[in-house]
Amino acid sequence: MNEAAIANRGRAEHLGPDRRRPQVLDTALEIAAQQGLADVTMGNIANRLGVTRPVVYACYPGRGEVLAALLDRETDEVLASLLELLPPQRTGSIEQLFVDGFRALHSTVRERPASWRIMFGADPDPVLTAAIVRGRDRLRNQLATVMRPLLQRWQVADLDIALPMLVEVFLAICEAAVRKMLDADGDSELVAETFGKAAYRAMRAKP
Predict the structure, then answer these.
(1) Distance CA 77, CA 110 (A)
(2) In which element (H, E) is residue 28 found?
(3) Does the CA dihedral 153-157-161-164 come out positive or negative?
(4) DSSP conformation letters of 48-60
């Protein structure tokens, strides 16, 4: 390592944990996107940041905590996108709104694929199991809050009973759609139309 690199590394190590943590998470997401979750290790994060491992460990106790913190942060991005799939409360039952929503979701998934793989990956990292459960609970709670007034407008019967079931169905459709969107060979228009119409019909299935 040359003198300039050593100097840069020394300066980097003096940022402090509070300022360093967002960089650690950004780097972890970058590694996950390029190489997969299995390569998100404390050593790889340190190497990519150009710091020593103790600097990374000062931010998080271990790999599991890095992945959990990353999942918590990326859940916010996922949640915002899923909430946008639901039509505004002022509208009626317009199927095209769901199709348009899934078309927009496709663009979001392609822009931040690692975020979606962390949450909806077919083979999640075992270290993330508890964090994924928490993240999905957040998704369910927020979706239920937004869906309730919409279903009330649609005069869905037995709403308190139907709402949790419809949330699960909607989330399952979204999860299947995201996995298809992560497939580079998928036809974006066909995916948006198929899953958008399926979500609409599922939401209107309960009279």
Answers:
(1) 13
(2) helix 17-35
(3) negative
(4) HHTS-HHHHHHH-
CA–CA dist 107, 41 (Å, integer): 29
Q: What is the DSSP string of 112-180?
A: SHHHHHHHH-SS--GGGHHHHHHHHHHHHHHHHHHHHHHHHHTT-SSHHHHHHHHHHHHHHHHHHHHHH
Q: How far is CA 195 from CA 45, 115, 166, 184, in A?
A: 37, 20, 15, 17
Task: Give yes or no for residue 28 having a pLDDT over 60.
Answer: yes
What letter represents residue 43's amino acid?
G
- Using only the alpha carbons of the chain, give its radius of gyration: 20
**Is the pLDDT confidence value at 3 over 50?**
no
Please, are residues 154 and 93 in contact by the beta-carbon 8 Å criterion? Answer: yes
Determine the angle formed by the axes of helices 17-35 and 113-120, rounding to 10 degrees: 80
How high does pLDDT run on average in the chain? Answer: 84
Task: Please report the domains of the chain, with CATH numbers, ordered by start residue.
Answer: 3-60 (1.10.10), 65-203 (1.10.357)
pLDDT confidence band for 112 (50 / 70 / 90):
confident
In angstroms, the CA 66 to CA 51 distance is 16
Name the band, by pLDDT with cuts 50, 70 and 90, for residue 172: very high
